[in-house]
Amino acid sequence: MACNLRSIEAIRADFPFFSANPDWAYLDNSATSQTPRCVAERLNRFLLYEKASPLRGLYDLSIRATEDYEAARAAAASFIHAENASEIIFTRNASESLNLAAFILSSLLSPEDEIIVSIAEHHSNLVPWQEAAARTGAVVKYMECNPEGVFEVSALERLLTERTRILALTHMSNVFGRENDLQSFTEKAHENGVLVVADGCQSVPHIPVNVQTLGVDFLAFSGHKMLAPTGIGVLYGRKALLESLPPYMTGGEMIEYVTTEHTTFAAPPQKYEAGTVNTGDALAFAEAIRYLEHLGFPFMMAREAELTEYLLQGMNSIPHVRIVGGSDPSAHHGIVTFLVDGVHPHDIASIMSDNHIAVRAGHHCAQPLHQHLGIPASTRVSLMFYNTREEISRFLNVLSDVREVMGYGR
Ligand SMILES: Cc1ncc(COP(=O)(O)O)c(C=O)c1O
């Protein structure tokens, strides 16, 4: 399969990681993705030749840095179809985005108010709500899924009360890979006056996301999971909410006017971006978005679907392998979490590592989900468009030997 007539070999050649690590199969893309040369070069160009503090200076270099930084914001807005670029706040990562959302929304919470959090949330969209509850006297309630990872709107309906204020829900679980029907959840939440904070970490890099269609009030995601450097993330927030909610961090750049007695704040997004901003990473992030847009979702999704099908077909034929969340490839979006009877996930990952295959083992920052599923830990393979059948075959060969390596008979 080729994108604009480029072969997968040509696409992989854009990523120096693969030639630097020719014997490795990198199958941990949900944790972080690899970076194409053009993205790293954009960061370098800024640091080496264009560096100036945006938003402050009146000289040309600073004005250009400001324009490029704001163009990066516009690129992020357009990628998720936000109505307005001012709805994009740059952060360090999704964790910071979600902490920001939880902090500013705490101002709307009173004792006994309720926050509904899905049991499948990454700790980044769970712990900040526990902290918000601890600060305000609000209560966290958990919405459960079935063993396949399916959340039903009826589960939300059962939990909603007149005290519910916030729903925290992932668009795509980093354990199941399943896409939640965020639009239906948002409609139900809004009917009941409940705001929705969605985690788009795993969806935004892999499927088209339209925040206006989904109707979410906030959406967080990380640049490093979509080819950009570590150190840049996004919080999308609906304009009216960002305008009315209080700031998070205070200090430089986020003010309008300061006297010894009183401060007025800048309009969003500056209101939520205190201090010198991360210009280099924002410009590199915009380059990553351009790269993804050039490949296009039809290409990336077809490729990830084909690879997921090949992976699951192979895994299903290996005895003692159990897939978390069912074996339907279309429900996984390149994320396949699994167990092998009698073998600890850490042993699986270390056998994989001995064979130069990078997979993730543990609770994947989703301990409450693992408790809900009754498993202490699991192993996860996560794919990106640049992975190959050959890498997956290597993984499957090692997987079929794992029990034997651990001393079980064939
Ligand atoms: C679903 C989900 N949410 C949030 C995060 C946190 O992202 P970051 O570590 O970039 O803040 C991750 C990262 O693994 C994730 O998969």
Most strands sheet: 7 strands, mixed
Q: What low-confidence regions span 5 or more consecutive residues with pLDDT below 50?
A: none
Q: Round the mean pLDDT to the nearest integer and report it.
A: 96
Examine the secondary-structure arrangement and name the CATH architecture of the largest domain.
3-Layer(aba) Sandwich
Number of domains: 2
Which fold name is given in CATH as the topology of the largest domain? Answer: Aspartate Aminotransferase, domain 2
Beta-strand percentage? 15-25%
The helix fraction, in percent, is 40-55%
| Shape, per Cα inertia axes | globular
How many distinct beta strands? 15
Question: Regarding quaternary structure, how should these chains be classified?
Answer: single chain
Short description:
The chain has 15 helices and 15 strands.
